[in-house]
Amino acid sequence: MFRVNVVVLPFCIILVMAMCHSISAQGFSGDNHDTLAVIGSKVITVQDFKTAYKDKLLRVGLTDNSDTRIKYLLNLVDDEVLIADAKNRGLDKSKTAKAEYERIKTQELLNAFSVKYIEPTIVVTEDDIRSMYIRMNTKIKVRHLYARSKEEADKIYKELGQGRTFDDLAKEIFHDPKLRDNGGDLGYISVDDMDPAFENAAFAMKPGEISPPVKTVTGYSVIKVEDKKTNPFVIESEYLKAHERIKAFVTKRAYEDATKRYTAQQKEMLAVTLNKTLLAQLYAVMQAAPDASLAENASALLKKDKNTVVVQSKAGKWDLKTLIREMQATSEEQRKWIHSQNDLEDFVSGLMLRKNIVRKALAAHLDTAASFAKKVAFNFGTWLMTMVEKELRENIKISPDSIKAYYVQNSDRYMKEAEMRLSSILVNNASTADSVARSLKNGVPFEKLAGQASLQAGTAKNGGDMGFFRRSDLGKLAEQVFRLHTGEWLGPVADSVKYLFLKCTDLKAPVMRSLEEVRGEIEQTLTTLNWFKIRKEYANALGNSLKIRIFPEKVTVLNLLTKVDNK
Fold first, then answer.
1. At 500, is the secondary structure helix, strand, or coil?
2. Contact 138, 228 (CB under 8 A)
3. Distance between alpha carbon 529 and the CA centroid of its chain, in Å?
4. DSSP characters for 231-274?
5. 499-538: pLDDT as tens digits
6. 372 touches 108 (CB < 8 A)
7. Contact assessment for residue 69 and residue 555, using Cβ atoms and an 8 Å cutoff
8. Plot region of 313 (φ>0 → left; ψ -120 to 50 → alpha; else → beta)
9. Residues 6+ apart with CB under 8 A from 354
10. pLDDT given for residue 19 in this prediction
11. What global pTM score does this model have?
Protein backbone atom coordinates (compact mmCIF):
# COMPACT_ATOMS: atom_id res chain seq x y z
CA MET A 1 0.00 0.00 0.00
CA PHE A 2 1.05 3.58 -0.52
CA ARG A 3 -0.58 5.51 2.30
CA VAL A 4 0.41 5.76 5.93
CA ASN A 5 -1.61 3.76 8.47
CA VAL A 6 -2.48 5.72 11.62
CA VAL A 7 -1.26 3.81 14.70
CA VAL A 8 -1.47 5.23 18.22
CA LEU A 9 0.94 3.80 20.77
CA PRO A 10 -0.76 3.59 24.16
CA PHE A 11 1.87 5.47 26.16
CA CYS A 12 2.26 8.68 24.18
CA ILE A 13 0.78 10.69 21.34
CA ILE A 14 2.42 9.98 18.01
CA LEU A 15 1.99 12.58 15.30
CA VAL A 16 1.04 11.00 12.00
CA MET A 17 1.72 13.30 9.07
CA ALA A 18 -0.84 12.71 6.35
CA MET A 19 0.72 11.95 2.98
CA CYS A 20 -1.94 13.53 0.83
CA HIS A 21 -5.56 14.63 0.89
CA SER A 22 -8.22 14.11 -1.77
CA ILE A 23 -10.87 16.78 -2.25
CA SER A 24 -14.10 17.06 -4.17
CA ALA A 25 -13.72 17.17 -7.93
CA GLN A 26 -16.66 19.51 -8.35
CA GLY A 27 -15.55 22.69 -10.03
CA PHE A 28 -12.34 21.13 -11.37
CA SER A 29 -11.38 19.94 -14.81
CA GLY A 30 -8.23 18.78 -16.46
CA ASP A 31 -7.65 22.33 -17.60
CA ASN A 32 -7.13 23.49 -14.02
CA HIS A 33 -3.37 23.82 -13.56
CA ASP A 34 -3.71 22.55 -9.96
CA THR A 35 -5.29 19.24 -11.01
CA LEU A 36 -3.08 16.18 -11.53
CA ALA A 37 -5.75 13.46 -11.61
CA VAL A 38 -9.52 13.06 -11.39
CA ILE A 39 -10.97 9.77 -10.14
CA GLY A 40 -14.76 9.84 -10.23
CA SER A 41 -15.64 12.69 -7.86
CA LYS A 42 -12.14 12.94 -6.34
CA VAL A 43 -9.23 15.13 -7.35
CA ILE A 44 -5.52 14.78 -6.62
CA THR A 45 -4.05 18.28 -6.62
CA VAL A 46 -0.53 19.64 -6.92
CA GLN A 47 -0.55 20.29 -3.18
CA ASP A 48 -1.65 16.72 -2.45
CA PHE A 49 1.12 15.30 -4.61
CA LYS A 50 3.86 17.54 -3.23
CA THR A 51 3.01 16.73 0.38
CA ALA A 52 2.96 13.00 -0.30
CA TYR A 53 5.91 12.82 -2.65
CA LYS A 54 8.32 14.96 -0.63
CA ASP A 55 7.54 12.90 2.47
CA LYS A 56 8.21 9.71 0.52
CA LEU A 57 11.54 11.01 -0.77
CA LEU A 58 12.71 11.78 2.76
CA ARG A 59 11.49 8.56 4.36
CA VAL A 60 12.58 6.09 1.69
CA GLY A 61 15.45 7.93 0.05
CA LEU A 62 14.04 7.74 -3.47
CA THR A 63 15.84 9.49 -6.32
CA ASP A 64 13.67 12.26 -7.71
CA ASN A 65 13.15 12.04 -11.47
CA SER A 66 10.28 12.17 -13.96
CA ASP A 67 9.75 8.40 -13.99
CA THR A 68 9.55 8.19 -10.18
CA ARG A 69 7.10 11.09 -10.05
CA ILE A 70 4.78 9.56 -12.64
CA LYS A 71 4.81 6.13 -10.98
CA TYR A 72 4.02 7.71 -7.63
CA LEU A 73 1.09 9.67 -9.10
CA LEU A 74 -0.28 6.44 -10.59
CA ASN A 75 0.01 4.79 -7.17
CA LEU A 76 -2.05 7.60 -5.63
CA VAL A 77 -4.68 7.10 -8.34
CA ASP A 78 -4.85 3.37 -7.53
CA ASP A 79 -5.34 4.30 -3.85
CA GLU A 80 -8.41 6.35 -4.73
CA VAL A 81 -9.78 3.57 -6.93
CA LEU A 82 -9.62 1.10 -4.03
CA ILE A 83 -11.26 3.61 -1.69
CA ALA A 84 -14.07 4.16 -4.19
CA ASP A 85 -14.53 0.37 -4.37
CA ALA A 86 -14.80 0.15 -0.58
CA LYS A 87 -17.47 2.87 -0.52
CA ASN A 88 -19.40 1.32 -3.41
CA ARG A 89 -19.57 -1.91 -1.39
CA GLY A 90 -20.75 -0.08 1.73
CA LEU A 91 -17.66 -0.88 3.81
CA ASP A 92 -17.75 2.67 5.18
CA LYS A 93 -21.22 2.11 6.69
CA SER A 94 -20.40 -0.85 8.94
CA LYS A 95 -20.34 -0.63 12.74
CA THR A 96 -16.60 -1.27 12.68
CA ALA A 97 -16.06 1.51 10.13
CA LYS A 98 -18.07 4.02 12.19
CA ALA A 99 -16.03 3.19 15.29
CA GLU A 100 -12.83 3.59 13.27
CA TYR A 101 -14.00 6.97 11.97
CA GLU A 102 -14.51 8.21 15.54
CA ARG A 103 -11.11 6.86 16.56
CA ILE A 104 -9.48 8.71 13.64
CA LYS A 105 -11.21 11.96 14.63
CA THR A 106 -9.82 11.60 18.15
CA GLN A 107 -6.36 10.85 16.81
CA GLU A 108 -6.42 13.89 14.54
CA LEU A 109 -7.39 16.08 17.49
CA LEU A 110 -4.37 14.72 19.35
CA ASN A 111 -2.19 15.34 16.29
CA ALA A 112 -3.48 18.90 15.91
CA PHE A 113 -2.78 19.57 19.59
CA SER A 114 0.72 18.17 19.21
CA VAL A 115 1.46 20.31 16.16
CA LYS A 116 0.30 23.47 17.93
CA TYR A 117 1.73 22.95 21.42
CA ILE A 118 4.44 20.25 21.34
CA GLU A 119 6.12 20.51 17.95
CA PRO A 120 7.26 24.14 18.48
CA THR A 121 9.34 23.00 21.47
CA ILE A 122 11.54 20.78 19.30
CA VAL A 123 15.07 21.96 18.52
CA VAL A 124 17.34 19.95 16.21
CA THR A 125 20.93 21.12 15.79
CA GLU A 126 23.57 20.31 13.20
CA ASP A 127 25.46 18.41 15.90
CA ASP A 128 22.37 16.26 16.48
CA ILE A 129 22.22 15.39 12.78
CA ARG A 130 25.94 14.65 12.51
CA SER A 131 25.85 12.50 15.66
CA MET A 132 23.00 10.47 14.20
CA TYR A 133 24.98 10.01 10.97
CA ILE A 134 27.86 8.57 12.99
CA ARG A 135 25.43 6.35 14.90
CA MET A 136 23.93 5.12 11.63
CA ASN A 137 27.42 4.05 10.60
CA THR A 138 28.09 2.27 13.89
CA LYS A 139 27.19 -1.28 14.85
CA ILE A 140 27.13 -2.65 18.37
CA LYS A 141 27.00 -6.29 19.44
CA VAL A 142 24.53 -6.74 22.28
CA ARG A 143 22.92 -9.29 24.54
CA HIS A 144 19.80 -8.67 26.55
CA LEU A 145 17.63 -10.31 29.19
CA TYR A 146 13.93 -9.50 29.00
CA ALA A 147 11.38 -8.98 31.76
CA ARG A 148 7.75 -7.93 31.62
CA SER A 149 7.84 -5.96 34.87
CA LYS A 150 10.29 -3.64 36.64
CA GLU A 151 10.38 -6.00 39.61
CA GLU A 152 11.43 -8.95 37.45
CA ALA A 153 14.04 -6.81 35.68
CA ASP A 154 15.50 -5.56 38.97
CA LYS A 155 15.79 -9.18 40.14
CA ILE A 156 17.67 -10.13 36.95
CA TYR A 157 20.04 -7.16 37.30
CA LYS A 158 20.71 -8.06 40.93
CA GLU A 159 21.48 -11.69 40.05
CA LEU A 160 23.96 -10.57 37.39
CA GLY A 161 25.69 -8.44 40.04
CA GLN A 162 25.91 -11.52 42.24
CA GLY A 163 27.81 -13.44 39.58
CA ARG A 164 25.19 -15.18 37.45
CA THR A 165 25.78 -15.03 33.69
CA PHE A 166 23.65 -14.07 30.70
CA ASP A 167 23.92 -17.67 29.49
CA ASP A 168 22.50 -19.02 32.78
CA LEU A 169 19.65 -16.55 33.08
CA ALA A 170 18.68 -16.71 29.39
CA LYS A 171 17.86 -20.41 29.81
CA GLU A 172 15.33 -19.49 32.51
CA ILE A 173 13.89 -16.36 30.88
CA PHE A 174 13.43 -16.90 27.15
CA HIS A 175 10.89 -19.12 25.43
CA ASP A 176 12.52 -18.42 22.06
CA PRO A 177 14.96 -21.33 21.59
CA LYS A 178 17.57 -19.22 19.81
CA LEU A 179 17.75 -16.56 22.54
CA ARG A 180 17.49 -19.23 25.24
CA ASP A 181 20.50 -21.11 23.84
CA ASN A 182 22.71 -18.17 22.86
CA GLY A 183 22.46 -16.20 26.10
CA GLY A 184 20.20 -13.49 24.71
CA ASP A 185 22.64 -12.62 21.92
CA LEU A 186 21.01 -10.22 19.43
CA GLY A 187 24.11 -9.91 17.26
CA TYR A 188 25.09 -6.56 15.80
CA ILE A 189 22.41 -3.86 15.81
CA SER A 190 22.28 -0.32 14.46
CA VAL A 191 19.84 2.58 14.30
CA ASP A 192 16.12 1.68 14.27
CA ASP A 193 16.75 -2.04 14.77
CA MET A 194 15.41 -1.87 18.33
CA ASP A 195 13.11 0.23 20.50
CA PRO A 196 14.57 3.80 20.71
CA ALA A 197 15.02 3.53 24.48
CA PHE A 198 16.96 0.26 24.05
CA GLU A 199 19.02 1.80 21.25
CA ASN A 200 19.87 4.97 23.19
CA ALA A 201 20.97 3.01 26.24
CA ALA A 202 23.10 0.59 24.22
CA PHE A 203 24.85 3.30 22.20
CA ALA A 204 25.70 5.17 25.41
CA MET A 205 27.52 2.13 26.84
CA LYS A 206 31.07 0.87 26.42
CA PRO A 207 31.91 -2.73 25.49
CA GLY A 208 31.71 -4.93 28.57
CA GLU A 209 29.18 -2.75 30.41
CA ILE A 210 25.80 -4.01 31.65
CA SER A 211 22.88 -1.59 31.92
CA PRO A 212 20.31 -1.29 34.70
CA PRO A 213 16.79 -2.23 33.50
CA VAL A 214 15.74 -0.18 30.45
CA LYS A 215 12.01 0.47 29.91
CA THR A 216 10.87 -0.28 26.36
CA VAL A 217 7.47 -0.49 24.70
CA THR A 218 7.24 -4.23 25.34
CA GLY A 219 8.71 -4.43 28.87
CA TYR A 220 12.21 -4.12 30.30
CA SER A 221 15.65 -5.15 29.07
CA VAL A 222 18.96 -5.57 30.86
CA ILE A 223 21.56 -4.94 28.16
CA LYS A 224 25.18 -5.95 27.74
CA VAL A 225 27.32 -4.39 25.02
CA GLU A 226 30.04 -6.76 23.81
CA ASP A 227 31.51 -4.90 20.85
CA LYS A 228 31.18 -1.62 19.02
CA LYS A 229 32.56 -0.72 15.61
CA THR A 230 32.16 2.42 13.51
CA ASN A 231 32.50 2.27 9.76
CA PRO A 232 35.75 4.14 8.98
CA PHE A 233 34.61 4.78 5.42
CA VAL A 234 32.11 7.52 6.21
CA ILE A 235 32.93 10.58 4.15
CA GLU A 236 31.67 14.16 4.13
CA SER A 237 30.09 13.94 0.68
CA GLU A 238 27.93 10.98 1.78
CA TYR A 239 26.87 12.90 4.88
CA LEU A 240 25.82 15.91 2.83
CA LYS A 241 23.88 13.67 0.43
CA ALA A 242 21.94 12.07 3.30
CA HIS A 243 21.60 15.27 5.36
CA GLU A 244 17.90 16.04 4.80
CA ARG A 245 16.81 12.43 5.26
CA ILE A 246 18.75 12.17 8.53
CA LYS A 247 17.41 15.53 9.69
CA ALA A 248 13.84 14.27 9.15
CA PHE A 249 14.62 11.12 11.16
CA VAL A 250 16.23 13.08 14.01
CA THR A 251 13.27 15.48 14.06
CA LYS A 252 10.86 12.54 14.30
CA ARG A 253 12.84 11.10 17.22
CA ALA A 254 12.95 14.52 18.92
CA TYR A 255 9.20 14.84 18.48
CA GLU A 256 8.58 11.45 20.11
CA ASP A 257 10.85 12.41 23.04
CA ALA A 258 9.07 15.75 23.46
CA THR A 259 5.70 13.96 23.45
CA LYS A 260 6.85 11.54 26.14
CA ARG A 261 8.08 14.43 28.29
CA TYR A 262 4.79 16.26 27.86
CA THR A 263 2.67 13.25 28.77
CA ALA A 264 4.85 12.56 31.83
CA GLN A 265 4.41 16.18 32.96
CA GLN A 266 0.66 16.01 32.39
CA LYS A 267 0.38 12.76 34.30
CA GLU A 268 2.09 14.38 37.28
CA MET A 269 0.01 17.56 37.04
CA LEU A 270 -3.27 15.63 36.83
CA ALA A 271 -2.26 13.41 39.77
CA VAL A 272 -3.58 10.25 38.11
CA THR A 273 -4.25 7.47 40.62
CA LEU A 274 -5.37 3.92 39.85
CA ASN A 275 -7.28 1.16 41.57
CA LYS A 276 -4.51 -1.37 41.03
CA THR A 277 -6.44 -4.20 42.66
CA LEU A 278 -9.26 -3.90 40.14
CA LEU A 279 -6.81 -3.42 37.26
CA ALA A 280 -5.03 -6.61 38.32
CA GLN A 281 -8.35 -8.46 38.07
CA LEU A 282 -9.04 -6.89 34.67
CA TYR A 283 -5.60 -7.88 33.38
CA ALA A 284 -6.11 -11.44 34.66
CA VAL A 285 -9.37 -11.90 32.74
CA MET A 286 -7.85 -10.33 29.62
CA GLN A 287 -5.02 -12.87 29.79
CA ALA A 288 -7.36 -15.77 30.46
CA ALA A 289 -9.15 -15.29 27.12
CA PRO A 290 -6.89 -13.16 24.89
CA ASP A 291 -8.95 -13.81 21.76
CA ALA A 292 -12.24 -12.70 23.32
CA SER A 293 -13.58 -9.16 23.01
CA LEU A 294 -12.89 -6.71 25.78
CA ALA A 295 -16.57 -6.63 26.76
CA GLU A 296 -16.69 -10.44 26.95
CA ASN A 297 -13.52 -10.52 29.05
CA ALA A 298 -14.81 -7.99 31.53
CA SER A 299 -18.45 -9.14 31.70
CA ALA A 300 -18.11 -10.85 35.09
CA LEU A 301 -16.21 -7.91 36.57
CA LEU A 302 -18.78 -5.46 35.24
CA LYS A 303 -21.61 -7.29 36.98
CA LYS A 304 -20.13 -6.67 40.42
CA ASP A 305 -17.79 -3.69 39.96
CA LYS A 306 -19.14 -1.61 37.06
CA ASN A 307 -19.61 1.45 39.31
CA THR A 308 -16.33 1.06 41.18
CA VAL A 309 -13.90 3.92 40.47
CA VAL A 310 -10.82 2.55 38.75
CA VAL A 311 -8.99 5.74 37.72
CA GLN A 312 -9.25 9.28 38.98
CA SER A 313 -7.43 12.56 38.47
CA LYS A 314 -7.90 16.33 38.63
CA ALA A 315 -9.55 15.99 35.22
CA GLY A 316 -12.23 13.60 36.50
CA LYS A 317 -12.79 9.97 37.42
CA TRP A 318 -13.89 6.81 35.64
CA ASP A 319 -15.68 3.79 36.98
CA LEU A 320 -15.01 0.37 35.46
CA LYS A 321 -17.90 0.68 32.99
CA THR A 322 -16.51 3.99 31.66
CA LEU A 323 -12.99 2.61 31.44
CA ILE A 324 -14.14 -0.40 29.41
CA ARG A 325 -16.00 1.93 27.05
CA GLU A 326 -12.89 4.10 26.61
CA MET A 327 -10.72 1.03 26.01
CA GLN A 328 -13.16 -0.28 23.41
CA ALA A 329 -12.70 3.00 21.51
CA THR A 330 -9.04 2.10 20.98
CA SER A 331 -7.82 -0.31 18.33
CA GLU A 332 -6.52 -3.85 18.69
CA GLU A 333 -3.20 -2.49 17.39
CA GLN A 334 -3.02 -0.22 20.44
CA ARG A 335 -4.12 -2.84 22.95
CA LYS A 336 -1.65 -5.44 21.70
CA TRP A 337 1.12 -3.59 23.56
CA ILE A 338 -0.38 -4.62 26.90
CA HIS A 339 1.91 -7.44 28.03
CA SER A 340 1.77 -6.97 31.81
CA GLN A 341 -0.23 -5.30 34.55
CA ASN A 342 2.29 -2.44 34.45
CA ASP A 343 1.51 -1.99 30.75
CA LEU A 344 -2.22 -1.95 31.48
CA GLU A 345 -1.70 0.69 34.17
CA ASP A 346 0.30 2.84 31.73
CA PHE A 347 -2.38 2.29 29.10
CA VAL A 348 -5.19 3.40 31.41
CA SER A 349 -3.24 6.46 32.55
CA GLY A 350 -2.61 7.26 28.89
CA LEU A 351 -6.33 7.09 28.14
CA MET A 352 -7.10 9.59 30.89
CA LEU A 353 -4.37 11.91 29.61
CA ARG A 354 -5.65 11.53 26.07
CA LYS A 355 -9.18 12.43 27.12
CA ASN A 356 -7.89 15.58 28.81
CA ILE A 357 -5.85 16.62 25.76
CA VAL A 358 -8.87 16.08 23.49
CA ARG A 359 -10.84 18.45 25.75
CA LYS A 360 -8.08 21.05 25.40
CA ALA A 361 -7.99 20.60 21.63
CA LEU A 362 -11.75 21.08 21.35
CA ALA A 363 -11.60 24.12 23.63
CA ALA A 364 -8.98 25.59 21.27
CA HIS A 365 -11.33 24.85 18.31
CA LEU A 366 -8.64 22.81 16.55
CA ASP A 367 -11.38 20.70 14.97
CA THR A 368 -12.68 23.67 12.99
CA ALA A 369 -9.57 24.06 10.81
CA ALA A 370 -10.06 23.06 7.17
CA SER A 371 -7.02 20.79 7.38
CA PHE A 372 -8.63 18.81 10.23
CA ALA A 373 -11.57 17.59 8.13
CA LYS A 374 -9.27 16.79 5.21
CA LYS A 375 -6.93 14.72 7.38
CA VAL A 376 -9.82 12.80 8.94
CA ALA A 377 -11.20 12.06 5.47
CA PHE A 378 -7.76 11.01 4.23
CA ASN A 379 -7.05 8.64 7.11
CA PHE A 380 -10.51 7.12 6.98
CA GLY A 381 -9.96 6.56 3.27
CA THR A 382 -6.66 4.90 4.10
CA TRP A 383 -8.43 2.55 6.50
CA LEU A 384 -11.05 1.66 3.89
CA MET A 385 -8.27 0.96 1.40
CA THR A 386 -6.57 -1.41 3.82
CA MET A 387 -9.81 -3.37 4.20
CA VAL A 388 -9.86 -3.99 0.45
CA GLU A 389 -6.13 -4.78 0.43
CA LYS A 390 -6.58 -7.27 3.26
CA GLU A 391 -9.08 -9.22 1.16
CA LEU A 392 -6.67 -9.26 -1.79
CA ARG A 393 -3.73 -10.41 0.35
CA GLU A 394 -5.71 -13.30 1.82
CA ASN A 395 -6.04 -14.76 -1.68
CA ILE A 396 -2.27 -14.94 -2.27
CA LYS A 397 -0.91 -18.47 -1.82
CA ILE A 398 2.74 -19.37 -2.46
CA SER A 399 3.42 -23.05 -3.17
CA PRO A 400 6.55 -24.92 -1.98
CA ASP A 401 7.44 -25.62 -5.63
CA SER A 402 7.39 -21.87 -6.38
CA ILE A 403 9.70 -21.19 -3.46
CA LYS A 404 12.14 -23.89 -4.59
CA ALA A 405 12.09 -22.69 -8.21
CA TYR A 406 12.79 -19.10 -7.15
CA TYR A 407 15.67 -20.29 -4.97
CA VAL A 408 17.26 -22.15 -7.88
CA GLN A 409 16.74 -19.33 -10.37
CA ASN A 410 18.05 -16.65 -7.99
CA SER A 411 20.73 -18.57 -6.12
CA ASP A 412 23.19 -15.66 -6.36
CA ARG A 413 20.88 -13.61 -4.10
CA TYR A 414 21.26 -16.12 -1.31
CA MET A 415 25.02 -16.27 -1.26
CA LYS A 416 26.52 -14.93 1.95
CA GLU A 417 28.99 -12.25 0.94
CA ALA A 418 32.70 -12.74 1.33
CA GLU A 419 33.97 -10.99 4.47
CA MET A 420 37.30 -9.36 5.18
CA ARG A 421 38.71 -8.63 8.62
CA LEU A 422 40.27 -5.20 8.66
CA SER A 423 42.51 -3.17 10.92
CA SER A 424 42.77 0.59 10.55
CA ILE A 425 44.92 3.60 11.35
CA LEU A 426 43.20 6.98 11.13
CA VAL A 427 45.21 10.21 11.33
CA ASN A 428 44.22 13.84 10.84
CA ASN A 429 47.06 15.44 8.86
CA ALA A 430 49.23 14.74 5.83
CA SER A 431 52.50 14.89 7.77
CA THR A 432 51.46 12.11 10.16
CA ALA A 433 50.08 10.10 7.23
CA ASP A 434 53.46 10.32 5.44
CA SER A 435 55.24 9.23 8.64
CA VAL A 436 52.92 6.22 9.08
CA ALA A 437 53.37 5.21 5.42
CA ARG A 438 57.18 5.33 5.73
CA SER A 439 57.11 3.30 8.94
CA LEU A 440 54.90 0.63 7.37
CA LYS A 441 57.20 0.39 4.35
CA ASN A 442 60.16 0.02 6.71
CA GLY A 443 58.51 -2.96 8.40
CA VAL A 444 57.07 -1.45 11.56
CA PRO A 445 54.08 -3.63 12.53
CA PHE A 446 50.70 -2.19 11.55
CA GLU A 447 49.30 -3.10 14.99
CA LYS A 448 52.02 -1.14 16.79
CA LEU A 449 51.47 1.98 14.70
CA ALA A 450 47.71 1.74 15.21
CA GLY A 451 48.21 1.79 18.98
CA GLN A 452 50.56 4.77 18.73
CA ALA A 453 49.00 6.98 16.07
CA SER A 454 45.35 6.12 15.32
CA LEU A 455 42.63 8.59 16.33
CA GLN A 456 40.16 5.70 16.81
CA ALA A 457 40.77 4.98 20.48
CA GLY A 458 38.35 2.05 20.59
CA THR A 459 40.21 0.08 17.90
CA ALA A 460 43.71 1.44 18.53
CA LYS A 461 44.02 -0.48 21.80
CA ASN A 462 43.36 -3.69 19.83
CA GLY A 463 45.98 -3.00 17.19
CA GLY A 464 43.43 -1.26 14.97
CA ASP A 465 41.20 -4.36 14.63
CA MET A 466 37.69 -3.43 13.44
CA GLY A 467 36.26 -6.90 12.82
CA PHE A 468 34.79 -8.30 9.59
CA PHE A 469 33.30 -6.22 6.76
CA ARG A 470 31.33 -7.18 3.68
CA ARG A 471 31.88 -5.59 0.29
CA SER A 472 28.53 -3.82 0.68
CA ASP A 473 29.78 -2.16 3.89
CA LEU A 474 32.68 -0.38 2.23
CA GLY A 475 31.06 1.95 -0.27
CA LYS A 476 33.39 3.44 -2.86
CA LEU A 477 36.44 1.72 -1.37
CA ALA A 478 35.01 -1.79 -1.76
CA GLU A 479 36.80 -2.76 -4.98
CA GLN A 480 40.14 -1.40 -3.82
CA VAL A 481 39.94 -3.00 -0.38
CA PHE A 482 38.81 -6.41 -1.62
CA ARG A 483 41.88 -6.67 -3.84
CA LEU A 484 43.97 -6.99 -0.70
CA HIS A 485 45.32 -10.37 0.41
CA THR A 486 45.80 -11.36 4.03
CA GLY A 487 48.65 -9.32 5.51
CA GLU A 488 48.52 -6.58 2.84
CA TRP A 489 47.71 -2.95 3.57
CA LEU A 490 46.76 0.17 1.63
CA GLY A 491 46.80 3.88 2.33
CA PRO A 492 46.69 6.66 2.96
CA VAL A 493 43.15 7.15 1.66
CA ALA A 494 42.34 10.85 2.05
CA ASP A 495 38.95 12.34 2.92
CA SER A 496 38.84 16.03 3.74
CA VAL A 497 41.47 16.40 6.50
CA LYS A 498 41.64 12.75 7.57
CA TYR A 499 43.81 9.94 6.26
CA LEU A 500 43.04 6.23 6.54
CA PHE A 501 45.24 3.12 6.36
CA LEU A 502 43.72 -0.36 6.15
CA LYS A 503 45.16 -3.84 6.56
CA CYS A 504 43.52 -7.17 5.68
CA THR A 505 44.07 -9.64 8.53
CA ASP A 506 41.65 -12.44 7.55
CA LEU A 507 39.22 -13.52 4.82
CA LYS A 508 35.99 -15.53 4.83
CA ALA A 509 34.89 -17.06 1.53
CA PRO A 510 31.27 -16.59 0.33
CA VAL A 511 28.85 -19.32 1.49
CA MET A 512 25.53 -20.41 -0.03
CA ARG A 513 22.59 -20.16 2.37
CA SER A 514 20.38 -23.26 2.45
CA LEU A 515 16.82 -23.34 1.15
CA GLU A 516 15.52 -23.86 4.68
CA GLU A 517 17.37 -20.77 5.89
CA VAL A 518 15.79 -18.54 3.27
CA ARG A 519 12.38 -20.21 2.77
CA GLY A 520 10.50 -17.54 4.74
CA GLU A 521 12.40 -14.74 3.02
CA ILE A 522 11.56 -16.12 -0.43
CA GLU A 523 7.90 -16.61 0.50
CA GLN A 524 7.72 -12.96 1.55
CA THR A 525 9.44 -11.87 -1.67
CA LEU A 526 7.03 -13.86 -3.85
CA THR A 527 4.05 -12.62 -1.83
CA THR A 528 5.18 -9.03 -2.37
CA LEU A 529 5.74 -9.56 -6.09
CA ASN A 530 2.31 -11.15 -6.47
CA TRP A 531 0.75 -8.51 -4.27
CA PHE A 532 1.78 -5.56 -6.44
CA LYS A 533 0.62 -7.38 -9.55
CA ILE A 534 -2.76 -8.37 -8.07
CA ARG A 535 -3.34 -4.92 -6.61
CA LYS A 536 -2.58 -3.23 -9.92
CA GLU A 537 -4.77 -5.61 -11.93
CA TYR A 538 -7.65 -5.15 -9.47
CA ALA A 539 -7.35 -1.36 -9.57
CA ASN A 540 -7.19 -1.37 -13.39
CA ALA A 541 -10.31 -3.53 -13.61
CA LEU A 542 -12.20 -1.20 -11.26
CA GLY A 543 -10.90 1.84 -13.10
CA ASN A 544 -12.80 0.82 -16.23
CA SER A 545 -16.06 1.68 -14.48
CA LEU A 546 -14.84 5.03 -13.13
CA LYS A 547 -14.22 8.28 -14.95
CA ILE A 548 -10.48 8.67 -14.54
CA ARG A 549 -8.35 11.41 -16.05
CA ILE A 550 -4.62 11.64 -15.31
CA PHE A 551 -2.20 14.40 -16.31
CA PRO A 552 1.26 12.87 -15.74
CA GLU A 553 3.03 15.52 -17.81
CA LYS A 554 2.24 18.06 -15.08
CA VAL A 555 4.24 16.29 -12.35
CA THR A 556 7.40 16.28 -14.44
CA VAL A 557 7.62 20.08 -14.35
CA LEU A 558 6.62 20.67 -10.71
CA ASN A 559 8.97 22.74 -8.57
CA LEU A 560 9.25 20.74 -5.34
CA LEU A 561 10.98 23.64 -3.60
CA THR A 562 7.77 25.69 -3.66
CA LYS A 563 6.34 25.78 -0.15
CA VAL A 564 3.41 23.44 0.46
CA ASP A 565 0.51 25.02 2.32
CA ASN A 566 -1.03 22.53 4.77
CA LYS A 567 -3.15 25.00 6.66
1. strand
2. yes
3. 22
4. -TT--HHHHHHHHHHHHHHHHHHHHHHHHHHHHHHHHHHHT-EE
5. 999 999 999 999 999 999 999 999 999 998 999 899 999 9
6. yes
7. yes
8. beta
9. 13, 106, 110
10. 29
11. 0.72
